[in-house]
Structure formats: C-alpha cells, structure tokens
Design a protein that fits this description.
Length: 758
C-alpha cells in the first residue's frame, strides 16, 4: 500500500539563491544561509508574489495576526532588514527587495517557481531510469539485475554524502592553510517578542542554564531542555542579572528596588530563600573564578541624551571597584583619574571580566575624544587584580561598549562592528591574552557574526558554550496629538517607516513637518518629513551632524547644526553653523571646543544657548545667530540634560537624573531654584511645552513602563502617555502650535543566542 504524500514543497530560485519552503531553508550556491523564521516567511510571501507589491496589511494579516500595529511595524521592518542582510541587498539600490513607501514591498528579480512532492516512494511507483555511476563503481547485482529503487537511492545518498564530507574537509584544510578564520553559527535560544525585549542574560558556569531579564521579570531557562521558569523575586524588584557564582546556584543581580531608584548589587539563589544585599550604589557585578571577589561599577555622573541604544544613550563617568564576595572591603580599582589624558573630553570604564585563575582583570575603556561618538576610542585593557599598571591589548573605534569575557583557553572575547556601512550589526571577536601577564599573544580573529548589536557576553567554565544577547531595538519617530479635553497624548503613530535609526530633533515653524536625524542612506543626514506624508527629504548632509541635535533659530528661518573638522582631536574647535531653511550656503555662527547641544527660544526672543563639555564639566553659554557667542550662564559637573523656555527667560537643568532633581536658572538675573519632581525619580530628558507653563520629561514607572510626564513649575507631575515596557520613549518635542508631540521611541526585539564549540 502506498504511503500518503507530503504537502507540496514550493521551491523558488532567483540569482544564486534557492529557497525551499518545505525544508525551511535558504541557500546560496548550495550553502545554507541563516534566516530566522519570521523573515523566512516574509521572504516566501514576497517570492510567491514576485513583481507585485505585497502590502503591509497583507503581511500583517497573514504573519502577524495577533500583534498590535506598532509591534507589527517593528517586526516587519526588522524582518526586511534581516532578509536584505541575508541576500546582500541594498535598500537604496535594491536588486531584490524594493520598498513601496507606506504600502509594502516588491520582489524585483526574476523568480523560477517549482513544486515538488517530497515523501516516501509508493510501492506501485515505476522505478527511476538507470543513472550512470560517475565514480566508476560497479552496479549492484545481488538478487537482481537492477537494485531496488530504495536501495539505489540509499547508495547514491551514501556516495554523495561521502563526496560532500571530502569537499568540506578539503575546504576546511584550505582555510587552515590560508589562515582564514571561519565564524561559527549562532543559535537562538529565546524567542521573545517586541513586547518583552531581553535586557540582560548570563550563562551558568556549568552550562546548564541561562538567566535572563526582560520587561516582565527574571527567568531561568534550561538550555538543553528548554524549560523556563520565573525567579521568585519581590514585586518591583526590577532585577538585572550580571553574573553567577562558581556553584551555578547563586546569582549576582543589580536592582533598583527602593523608591529613590538607586542601584545596588544583591546575591540571589535560584533555589529560593533569602536575598542578600552586598553593596549599595553599585551595579553590574562580576564574580572571580574562585568566587572570592566581585568586580562592579559605580556611576558617578548622569548621562546626557543620545538616541542610539548601542552607544549606551550618551556618556557617563564610571569607576570600576572591587570587594570581597561577602560585600566587605569595597575599594576603587580603575577610574577616570587613572587614565584620562590631555586631549580627551572624558573617560568611561565599561565592561569587566576576570582572567582564568583570577589573577588579572580585563575591562573596556571608552575615551571620549570629542562630542561626536564617531571620535570616541574604545580599548581593551588588563590589570593585575592587586593593582599596578594597566596593559593595553588593542584599541579600535569599532569595539562595542557592551561586554567582554575571558574564556578558559585564554581568549578574550569582545564585540566588534566590522561593516563600515552598518552601525547596527556586530560580530564576536577574540584575541589570545596571557592570563598572568595580561599581554596579547596573537592577532584578533572572528568567532561569530549576526544581526544586531551585542548586549552581553558570558562563557561556561569549560569554555564550550558562549552566550550573548543581541538587540535589534532602534530609535524611531512617532507622532502623538494632545487631546483637547484631557491634554493627554493620544496613541502614537509611527512616522518613519524604514529599518534604520531615526531621531526627532525639532519641528518646522508651521507645525506640519518634523526634522529628524537618520542613517538610512549610510552617513547621518538631517531629514524633513510632513506628518501626513510617507516620504522624507534631505535637508543637511555631510557635516557630522550627529554630533549635536540640529535645531531651528528663534524666528524659524535658519537651521543650526555643527561641523566637526577633526572628530578625533578635541583641541580643534567645533563650528556651529547656520543655513537658511529655504536652502543656501551655510555660514559660521561661532566656534568653540566641546560644543554638545544648543537650543533657541522663539520670536520675539532672540536668545539661544549652547552647552560645551570639557572633561567632567558642562558650561552653558548664550549666543546670538547674528552676533555670535555671549556670556556664560552656569556650570555643572557631568553632562546633564537641559531645556530652554520658549520665551528665553529660563534654563532647566536635570541635576540628578536618578533622584528626580531639576534646577531652574534665570537668564536675566542668574538666580537658581531647585525642584524635585514629586513621585518620580528617573528623568530622561526635558523639553518645555509650547505654552511655556510646564516641561515634558521622560521617565519610568516602578514596573519598567515608559512614560511622558507633564511637570509644572512646582514639581507636580501628570502622566500624559504610558507606552508599556516594550517601547521606550526617550523624549517628546512639542510642536510650536502645541497640538502635537514628536516622540523618540526605542522599540524592537532582543533575544539570547548561543555559540557552541567555538
């Protein structure tokens, strides 16, 4: 009796590629290309309708039936970006996938579609035609003149498998002889949606578990079995795991459990029981291999705003500390005073990892060369755990400010951006480092590659498993309207519909268009887009405009932006430029070192203010677009967020972004007034409302949800918008007429990946 046939397998061939829907595989010249399930299904739909526009609505109904509109946008844009990456396609000059703005996507290349019916051969089916033997083996003769079909298929399968093994072995030998490293494949081990992006993950020393945190809690996942269970933690504990103790049953977690949102490090058992706070005012702990010491960070100043998640949202000053695993004897190990050099704006100590044996400690140092992130220099350094001089391993602008780990075989693993045209995707690289001397013993080599930035790295005690989490969250522009009755912000709708970074900076004077920065065509450019139109137009390009957010002059006739002649040399002044909104030749307004941000009041006022950052100090100085630099208003430690009132009378400075503290400064008299935002601690940014009676501030609820607050001049706060934990709103810029707000929103999916036998 014949066996039932399997469902038909659609096969699509285009260019050098072949996609098998039944096997769930995409291949290029016979080599399998990694593509996740959601992007794979999107590609199938595009191929099945090649030459036609496949609408976003069609894809949503077919592939995202249960998701919200906002989550669907993020998911589809990420899927298209991953498909283009797999095909080597360019969004600006596409060969395969063309974007139909606000409508959908069209597959451009010719597609050959075939259908096969895989499955067992029926007993009544005719035998296949004889096939000559290409390797000269004798035909089967046992029991018959011709071998049965199933036996013949088996013989050919064995022959072809043997040939494939020989070819792979020859290719591997050729790579070894040529010295060409071969990145290994990453395997995804979580499948969190955009509603619960992962924000921390660490593998246990014994390699059995991954503990991870997302917007809903902290979870323990069994790697091989897949069983996942939540850790039992108090409500609003907001824990973020950063390390394991050698016994693989106790964790180090950072928590902001208390009302003031101050970070502290705790010891938590995965088996339950009492938690133990080890140290206050600390975060991101790492346990030594023998479990006797803990390295951790203390952040000493607040961060200003950037809008790029993989750049840690701006600068901070942090110090690396050590203590006993019991929490005793905390002492400073590395800080800015140890390494700051002439010509640097500042230094930030980032990730940390212990050497095998625990004798040395490796860390990443970020040297802030200028206010542009492109000028920052990242370096891998090691230092003896008892102190002494640091040892430089390597330095590179492309190193990720994420994490690193020291594998048992002596390789120091770190994240590196290798594609100069793509700032979002990082690979894992390794360099052999002596665990005793801390000196490099070889050249860097790639370990794995993937899509998205890397949030953390951790390795098992036997060195067989490397775990990382990749982020595909990006900054996007959303627009919301103020409700006339309640003054609350309505549900935001997405304005920018591409797969790149987009951050709003200002409104046009007519309140109908938004100015935003984007890297959608490679270099950063300033775009303008009407809120009722799908397309944007370039306004300014080619002048390092990502350094500070471009703004408008007081009368709205000029675009102000900065030109950084030497991003790698802060001694060369930065130039603040002005260009007519209608177009024309830019002109110099003023120049100074360390220009970080600037704002202008609105007509009839002509006052503008810029901030400059030198070392660990921020200065605020007035200027006029016609007469240039004016007088200094104030100085602060660190790099605080700030805003200028529409009438130019007051400067608002966030003096403590984790204690809810603001300061109002009169530009006329210099008088200062301190204020605490009642009931809220975390302050992400500040923009004055169009009427000038209050300020809009981004914050976070105890459960981690992102909100926009309206804060009056007495510190009373009212929630205008709550987006939930899956979409982080960084700031809101009100339109001049007070009707709308342009929101900068980080949204997307983050998941945990694993590399084995690397």
């Amino acid at each position: 009796m014949g066996s039932a046939a399997s469902p038909a397998d659609r096969i699509f061939r285009f260019g050098q590629f072949e996609l098998s829907e039944g096997e769930g595989e995409l291949r290029k010249n016979g080599v399998r290309i990694k593509l996740q399930e959601q992007p794979f299904q999107v590609l199938v739909e595009l191929l099945a309708n090649a030459g036609k526009v496949v609408t976003r609505e069609h894809l949503q109904q077919k592939l995202w039936p249960a998701d919200t509109f906002v989550d669907f946008d993020v998911g589809l844009n990420t899927a298209i970006r991953k498909i283009r990456h797999a095909l080597g396609d360019d969004a600006d000059h596409p060969h395969y996938i063309e974007t139909a703005a606000k409508r959908g996507y069209r597959f451009l290349a010719p597609v050959n579609k075939t259908t096969s019916a895989p499955g067992l051969v029926s007993e009544n089916a005719a035998p296949p035609e004889p096939v000559s033997d290409p390797v000269g083996t004798q035909p089967e003769t046992v029991g018959s003149e011709c071998a049965p079909a199933s036996e013949k298929y088996r013989r050919w399968y064995l022959i072809l498998t043997a040939l494939a093994v020989v070819a792979l072995a020859a290719g591997a030998l050729w790579r070894v002889k040529r010295g060409v490293p071969h990145p290994v494949v990453e395997k995804r081990i979580t499948a969190n949606s955009t509603e619960a992006p992962i924000r921390a993950a660490v593998v246990s020393p014994d390699g059995k578990y991954v503990v991870y945190a997302d917007s809903t809690g902290v979870y323990l996942r069994q790697i091989d079995g897949g069983e996942t269970r939540p850790l039992l933690l108090p409500k609003n504990f907001r824990a973020s795991p950063s390390g394991w103790f050698p016994d693989s049953t106790h964790l180090l977690v950072t928590s902001r459990f208390r009302s003031e949102q101050k970070a502290s490090i705790w010891k938590v058992s995965i088996l339950g029981g009492t938690r133990q706070m080890l140290v206050d005012d600390a975060e991101d702990g790492s346990v030594s291999p023998d479990g006797s010491q803990i390295a951790f960070f203390r952040r000493t100043f607040g961060r200003p705003f950037g809008f790029k998640e993989n750049r840690a949202l701006g600068y901070s000053v942090s110090e690396l500390w050590l203590m006993a695993s019991s929490g005793e004897n905390p002492h400073r190990f590395v800080g800015p005073k140890d390494s700051i050099e002439p010509g640097s704006v500042g230094v930030e100590v980032l990730a940390v990892s212990w050497a095998p044996g625990g004798r040395r400690i490796a860390y990443i140092e970020r040297r802030i060369i200028a206010t542009t992130p492109a000028g920052d220099l990242y370096s891998l350094q090691t230092r003896d755990s008892t102190g002494g001089e640091s040892q430089l391993i390597l330095s590179d602008h492309r190193i990720a400010a994420a994490d690193l780990c020291w594998a048992p075989d002596g390789r120091l693993l770190y994240a590196l951006r290798t594609d100069p045209k793509n700032e979002s995707d990082y690979g894992v690289w390794a360099i052999q480092v002596d665990p005793v001397t801390g000196k490099a013993k070889g050249e860097p080599e790639p370990v794995s590659e993937g899509l998205g930035w890397i949030g953390s790295l951790s390795v098992t005690a036997d060195g067989k498993r490397l775990v990382l989490w990749r982020g595909n969250t990006q900054s996007q522009v959303f627009v919301s309207e103020f409700d006339k009755g309640t003054y609350h912000l309505t549900t935001p709708r997405r304005l920018t519909m591409d797969e790149n970074e987009n951050g709003p900076t200002a409104w046009m004077p007519d309140s109908k268009s938004v100015l935003f920065l984007s890297d959608r065509s490679g270099p950063w450019k300033l775009f303008r887009q009407r809120i009722d139109q799908p397309n944007a137009e370039v306004v300014v390009e080619g002048r390092n405009i990502e350094t500070a957010l471009p703004r408008l002059s007081a009368d709205g006739s000029q675009i102000l932006f900065v030109d950084v002649p030497r991003p790698d040399d802060p001694s060369v002044p930065i130039r603040l430029m002005s260009m007519p909104l209608s177009g024309g030749v830019p002109r110099l307004v003023l120049q100074d070192r360390g220009i970080a941000n600037f704002l202008c009041a609105r007509t009839p006022s002509t006052i503008c203010v810029f901030s400059k950052v030198l070392g660990t100090t921020s200065s605020f100085i007035t200027f006029d677009t016609e007469r240039g630099k004016g007088r200094e208003i104030a100085r602060f430690d660190g790099w605080p967020n700030w805003g200028l009132s529409p009438d130019g009378s007051q400067l608002t400075v966030v003096t403590d972004d984790h204690q809810g503290r603001l300061q109002f400064i009169s530009l006329e008299t210099g008088a200062r007034r301190d204020m605490v935002v009642k009931g809220w601690s975390v302050l992400k940014g500040v923009d004055w409302t169009a009427q000038g009676r209050s300020v809009l501030i981004g914050s976070v609820t105890p459960s981690g949800a992102s909100v926009i607050l309206d804060v009056d001049l007495d510190g009373n706060a009212h929630v205008l918008l709550e987006t939930g934990p899956h979409a982080q709103v960084l700031w809101a810029i009100p339109s001049p007429d007070g009707r709308y707000a342009a929101l900068n929103v980080l949204t997307g999916e983050n998941n945990v990946w694993m590399v084995e036998n690397f």
